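Posting this for the archive.
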Amino acid sequence: MELIYSTGGREKYFKSNVVGDCVCRAIANATGMDYKQVYDLINSYAKKEHLSKRKKKKSNARNGVTKDTIWRILTDLGWKWIPTMLIGSGCQVHLNEKELPDGTLIVSVSKHLTCVKNRKLYDTYDCSRGGTRCVYGYYIKERS
């Protein structure tokens, strides 16, 4: 899969390259929204999260976002979750151009979220592991 290096516009606002902002980058790359606008949106949703015994800290656009918060943000923006891996099913879809549909996708892989546009990977590194990385599912923009 061809890699298009993209920070989603992070360099306009932050200098550091060592951050856990994959959710922010993926959403900015997929939607065309400004990085800072997505950053602030994620943090506003994170403020509404509830802490529990299992969930000790809130999400943060710079250091990681929970799956529930990602789902809330993207469904509110009009994206639909398409699961590609179910419990006990094993890996059915991999992060490569032959197994993903055309269009713009926000793809969930282990501990990472990335953007694929027309079968090209938009990220800061090649997270496909040579096309063998398992895709848990992806978000696709619902037609209005």
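The longest strand covers residues 135-141. The CA atoms of residues 79 and 141 lie 4 Å apart.
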